[in-house]
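[audit] Reproducing an earlier prediction to check determinism. Same input, same settings, fresh worker. If the C-alpha cells differ from the archived copy the diff job will pick it up downstream; this log only records the rerun itself.
[audit] input (120 residues):
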Amino acid sequence: MPLNHPLAWVEVQGYAWAAYASYLQLAKKRGGLELSLEQEIQSRMNGLLSGLQRFWLEDEHIPAIALDGQKQTIMAVSSNPGHLLWSGCNTLPHIHAVILKEFVAVHCGETMDRNSSKIH
C-alpha cells in the first residue's frame, strides 16, 4: 500500500520541540529575546505537543512511527517514539513506561503483550 506524502515522522516532532526549547533557553540567557518572538515560539511548541496526540495508536498503546500526508497514522510500531523521551515533549499518556517496554521488546528480542504493555 503506497503512502501519501509528505510524512510526519514522530521523532522529528521531538527534535523540533527540543530545538525551540533550546533556542528559548539560550536567548533568555543572553537577554536577547523579544516578547513577540517568545510568544511565537511558545505557540509553535504548543502546536507540536497537541499534534503529537494524532500519533497515538490506542490499540497498541504507543505512538505511531509517522503520519501520512492526510495526517492519518501509519499503522506501524517502532522504537522511533523513544526519541520523544530526551526531547522533553513527552505529553502522551504513560509515554515513558510504554516506550521503555517497547525499546526492550525491539532491541532485546522480548515479546510484548500490547494490550497490557507487559513484557514476557
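[audit] rerun output stored. Observation attached for the diff report: The chain has one domain: 8-119.
[audit] end
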